[in-house]
Design a protein that fits this description.
Length: 286
């Protein structure tokens, strides 16, 4: 099998995502939840670097605080793709981590998706985008949207995706120094699980919320403080189960001005909302 000619200096983007709202409509018999959400990407994220190997080994070349290699979704994605393809190939993987762990921005899922897309290309394994998305679902509910790379209305556990065209505003993303457990939030007894089903028109009319906000802010007060601060700057919402909070602006300058007011104890960045992932843009050019 011929390997594609890429070097370890080629950065494969793994962008962040935002949940522009999040409703839980039911708890399933398998313990998971049916939900409705709206995904949009950001022009900010991690970068991954790959060097194919012929010995079948997958090696993460750099340490990531709090993430053992065997638990790393990028490593798991590479091993799963190798197993399903039967290619017998491996890879050295280096991750430049910019997205917070437990921040609700999809960093781990995005890393997994980028690994699937990149190694499918580098190993010439020939899976279609739809097949990669199905493989990605085995790793996590958010992985398919990163594989497909289009802003989407999502239902089911987040795997039923319908691409949408949304405004692409500027966001100020504020990241409190806490890591939120998604499992903890979805297992909370007080989580609202009977939201009525909504449509994109409901979102555009402002009739949607993130039902995880009251649960997360009760358990992680700093997230609540960041959300309160954000709402003093403009329309603010928590992404996913948190901890990150984003404020929406029409212009980059306005977002940058607000960033200067972010309290010193919180990290922050300004990013553009994108309906097409940077990963998708790269694949179109290859």
């Amino acid at each position: 099998m011929t390997l594609a000619p890429f070097t370890n200096e080629f950065p494969w983007p793994a962008p962040a995502k935002l949940n522009l709202f999040l409703h839980v409509t039911a708890r399933r018999v398998d313990g998971y939840h049916d939900l409705q959400t709206l995904f949009q990407f950001l022009d900010h994220g991690d970068s991954l670097f790959f060097v194919p190997r012929g010995d079948g080994k997958v090696v993460r070349q750099n340490a990531l605080p709090g993430i053992a290699p065997e638990d790393d979704l990028a490593v798991r994605a590479a091993k799963l793709l190798g197993k399903l393809s039967g290619a017998g190939l491996g890879a050295d993987i280096r991750i430049e981590k910019r997205l917070p762990i437990g921040g609700g921005l999809g960093g781990g899922s995005s890393n997994a998706a980028t690994t699937l897309v990149a190694l499918n290309r580098l190993w010439n394994t020939g899976f279609t985008t739809a097949e990669l998305a199905e493989i990605g679902l085995k790793l996590g509910a958010d992985v398919p949207v990163f594989v497909r790379g289009l802003a989407s209305w999502a239902e089911g556990v987040g795997e039923r995706l319908a691409p949408v065209e949304m405004p692409e505003p500027w966001y100020l993303v504020v990241v409190p120094e806490v890591s939120v457990s998604t499992r903890e939030i979805f297992e909370a007894t007080e989580l609202k699980r009977d939201c009525p089903r909504v449509t994109l028109d409901d979102y555009l009319a402002g009739r949607t919320v993130n039902v995880c906000e009251p649960v997360t802010t009760a358990r992680y007060p700093e997230v609540g403080q960041a959300l309160e601060w954000g709402r003093q700057q403009g329309p603010a919402r928590m992404s996913g189960t948190g901890a990150s909070v984003y404020v929406t602006f029409t212009e980059r300058a306005l977002a940058s001005q607000a960033q200067k007011r972010v309290p010193a104890q919180w990290k922050s960045f300004v990013a553009r909302g994108l309906n097409r992932s940077p990963l998708t843009a790269i694949m179109r050019g290859l």
